[in-house]
Amino acid sequence: MANKYNILSTKTLPAILHELAEENGALLRIHNFVEIAPVFISPEFQEAINQLIQTYNVTVFTSANAVLSIKGVTAPAQICCLSGNTLETVQRIFPNATIVATADHAAELANQMIATRNIHSAVFFCGNKRRDTLPDLLQQHLIDLKEVVVYETIPVPVPIEGHIDGVLFFSPSGVEAYFQYNQLAPDTVCFAIGQTTGDALKAYTSKVVVMNEEKPSAKNLLQLAITYFKNHN
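Above: the chain sequence. Below: its structure as tokens.
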């Protein structure tokens, strides 16, 4: 099948998704617009993390990167996390933990935590670019929140040459890095992995398609773009 449209992914995707794109008449281009650098966890830092996990009611993750960054620590007993890849990573790294709350985006997760009425404290493992939504909501409801930065998000902006029909975005940080050197053509459509990323895109374009899935994933986002272009050609 001849390639009919070009899709740019702002992060690396597995080979099987390149095959999926090709089978559906798309050329998939890749550039990592952000890199993840885990914070070095010394024995002293690990002991401090273990103490926090044991002291606070629940452990909170809004990124799979945060889960992977502390995979060698004492397993949390109770976890609140985003759905999709974050939840899947939590279940793989901490299989015996109880999932107290899970949601598609940070505001919904915070509201679920608040609604339980028995979470009085939480330790939030996050990156240096984390959004304010979850911390602000929890603190407004007097939940004692301890934030611990366990990875850094490093932007890798680069100009992209050639026409792009659709761009796949997976985080607000990826949005910011992409638009540092790039502008959208009038007919380019942006596809967002979730509402938070979609909201970040609204500062740059009105042509945003936000994924509305219970389990957001790179495969489902690519499939959303494929379906969109099939229906609009």
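Residues 37-153 form a domain with the Rossmann fold fold (CATH 3.40.50.10090).
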